[in-house]
Amino acid sequence: MQDLLFLLSKVLWALLRPNTLALALAVLGLLLVWRGRRFGRWPLALGIGWYAAVFALPVAALLTLPLENRFPRPATPPAQVTGIIVLGGAVEQRMTEARGIPALNGAAERMTEGVALALRYPEARLVFTGGTAAIDQSGPTEAETARLLFTSLGLPAGRLVLENESRNTHENAVYTHRLLNPQPGETWLLVTSASHMPRSMGVFRAAGWSRIIAWPVNYTTGNDPAYWWDNPFPTKLNHAEWALREWVGLVAYRLMGRTPALFPAP
Fold it and tell me: Could you tell me which residue ranges the DUF218 domain spans (predicted)?
């Protein structure tokens, strides 16, 4: 069942991701109008309307802000930390394999903040959880790239705990819990992108992590409206699509019972 749900989620997202769907609707509508079908104006308007709205309005920021503001960092960092859990999604396995050096994407702060926290808490274990999110599971895992990056930055291999089988956030939480068996009284920090934190915290709570503290990174919005129009159009499209993916993920995970709340809160 897990494999089927994973495959289904990949196929559905590939077909229905907003930017791709809007383009398909616009092209379909244009073809229908060109062939004299008046109803083609509706898919054409929907497709172009999505791009126009993201271009002219702060759609990306308004979709992202509630997600990024849901779990602020603690005002007073904990004095002692058992471990720091870094979620996958920030590394490029194929590029790392092709070039031989760790390759990171736009969520690179997950990795750099993990190292910074490891230096702040020298007794804490640094945990990375991530296999591969691709349908083809034969390639290198994210955990392999994480090991290469962390050790090249000077962290001893003995401090690292690498979980290399998970394919999504639910499996991140479940497999890491199984691997580490956290005990009552232990304090764990969860490092992931701020917009991804609500779903992540809900999933980790459902998996049995009783004391886990959100440590969000990789913010893409600011509360000042002056920042909402700063990004170029392609970046706005990417941010809007990512935010919608998180909202859809929250609903899907709640329906599947993978999170105890629709919109988890501190």
Answer: 83-249
How many whole angstroms separate alpha carbon 30 and alpha carbon 25? 8
Q: Are residues 188 and 83 in the same domain?
A: yes
Q: Enumerate residues 6+ apart whose C-beta is below 8 A from 190.
A: 85, 87, 197, 200, 201, 204, 212, 213, 214, 215
Query: Residue 130's closest CA among 168, 174, 157, 160?
Result: 168
- Secondary structure class of 215 (helix, strand, coil): strand
**pLDDT score of 226:** 81
Task: Specify which residues 81 forms β-bridges with.
Answer: none
Domain check: are 129 and 213 in the same one? yes
pLDDT tens by residue, 145-166:
999 999 999 999 999 999 999 9
* CA–CA separation, 5 and 170 (whole Å): 11
- Tell which residue, 168, 241, 177, 249, has the closest CA to residue 20: 241
Nearest to 104 by CA among 45, 50, 149: 149
Residue 212 CB neighbours (<10 A):
22
- Residue 10 inside a domain? The answer is yes
Cβ atoms of residues 192 and 217 within 8 Å: yes
**Residue 47, SS3?**
helix
- Spell out where 122-180 has E strands: 125-129, 160-163
pLDDT tens-digit readout, 118-132:
999 999 999 999 987
Domain assignment of residue 111, given as a range: 74-217
Residues 101 and 147 in one domain: yes
In eight-state DSSP terms, residue 74 is P
Query: Contact 215/191 with Cβ under 8 angstroms?
Result: yes
